[in-house]
Amino acid sequence: MQIEINNLQDINEAAQKFIQEMGDNKVFAFYGNMGAGKTTFIKAICDELGVIETVSSPTFAIINEYRDKMSNPIYHFDFYRINKLEEAFDFGYEDYFYSGNLCFIEWPELVESILPDNAVRIAIMVTDQGERIVEQR
What we know:
Helix content: 10-25%
CATH class: Alpha Beta
Radius of gyration: 14 Å
Strand content: 25-35%
Number of strands: 7
């Protein structure tokens, strides 16, 4: 899977393509530098899935929960601010990662050792022209 996002106006179309490629996968780990657009892309995916809540980075909360148009939970994680892996254990990450519900994870590098084996790793890269490339690792 490789999706190009040439400008912000293309993001919802890119999110639709991403959703079409998701298959039965539920856990998606998004890798990318600060400012690459991880949160923005996850917000667009959630918009396309019918989430009506405000989608924002759960930087301080670590996890946000949204509901899709069928009222299924979607879990959005941001592990940027955790200091040690034990913090993920403290909030019971297994209950989320293995729930069968969608999980979108930002900064998964910090919890790599506890990601499910079937987690789909997605890289978001910024080109010299400012375009975004979303691809499966």
